[in-house]
Amino acid sequence: MAAPQPPPPPPPSVSPSLIRHLGPNWYASVMGTAIVANAGVALPVHVRGLHTFSLAFWALSAAMLAVLLTARALHWARHRDQARAHLLDPAVAPFYGCLAMALLAVGGGTLLIGKDVIGLHAAVVADSVLFVAGTAIGLLAAVAIPYLMVESHRIRPGSASPVWLLPVVAPMVSAALGPLLVPHLPPGQWQRALLLGCYTMFGLSMLATLVLLPIVFGRMVTGPRLPLALTPTLFLVLGPLGQSVTAANKFADAAPGVVQSPYAEGFRMFAVIYGVPVMGFALLWFAFACAMLVRARRLGMRFSLTWWALTFPVGTCVTGAEGLAQHTGLDLYRWLAVFLYACLLAAWATAASLTVRGLATGAFVPAAAGPAAGTAGAPAAGAAAGRP
């Protein structure tokens, strides 16, 4: 009589982990929260309680950044296969620019409003650390991600996406927030070097945007349409536009006493001569993106993490309008800033509430587990993950 055979082992089951599937796109939520604080503190109207409101958002963004940095460190330590898969996925890799922008946005908010809590000296130190780290990561991403796109990523014709702008817009965020540190540096070479370094990053980012934007728009006109889940990423185009207008106005604020008189006046003129037409194009794109968003909703677009693209880019247009209001004296830009800030608050409230609901229901973790599921989940993490 044959000995009974042992039962076959049960198939391995791996509990899905949010840490394993945590992509760099999650930093967009930090950016979107920080810009609510940064734009609110400079809003050119008096609203009772706005300062406290902005302070609360800065504190929330700082806490979110700390949590995400810890979680992403665990992701790299425990799930390096998934982390490498993210880098090699053209849908996810561009989101590494969000890490740089999250550091920069929280650092800028620390100096703008966090100083009221931690003191000016501590705010300058914190912003300096975050600015240096964010700028270094942003410049690295601006070079490394396009390199990976050329050398390692398999990109199909007609697959261009506004997400491609993320690595190259990070230096523009440095350009816009770096001038805040200029008054806190020793006069002379240090101040001039930072101001002109920010101006250099302004050119780097804007010229790279001018190279990529026609490719993205060309795909929309002649190639396959964007998937519905990617429709909110159209608002990413507002990022380099609004942030460049913000940067131009910050240069004008920082230049007097730092560079020689003709150039200081040139920066002031540039803020208006450049900022007004670019803000006009930003408003054109804002209307276009809103129309596409309405269309996508009618066709059944559901919530995904890409909805955070409705926050930070719109916030950069708020800060750009605030700068133009200051340098032109026009009430038109004051009320434009108020209108865009209201849009920003509505977008943040929607994205935040649905993200919290998605976290509570586990919607951001793929149902399947294992290496295959992890790799398959990577594009979703960058494009359409989490549809509660």
Description:
- This protein has 388 residues and is mainly α.
- Helix content is 70%, strand content 0%.
- The protein has helices at 27-41, 50-78, 80-87, 96-118, 120-151, 166-177, 189-222, 238-254, 261-298, 312-328, 331-361, 371-384.
- The protein is globular and about 50 Å long.
- The N and C termini lie far apart (56 Å).
**What's the SSE pattern?**
HHHHHHHHHHHH
How many distinct helices?
12
N-to-C CA distance: 56 Å
* Rg over C-alpha atoms, rounded to the nearest angstrom: 22 Å
Low-confidence stretches: 1-16, 367-388
Gross morphology: globular
Query: Averaging pLDDT over every residue, what do you get?
Result: 88
Structural class: mainly alpha
Largest sheet: none
* Helix coverage percent: 55-70%
Tally of strands: 0
Which strand-content bin applies to the residues? under 5%
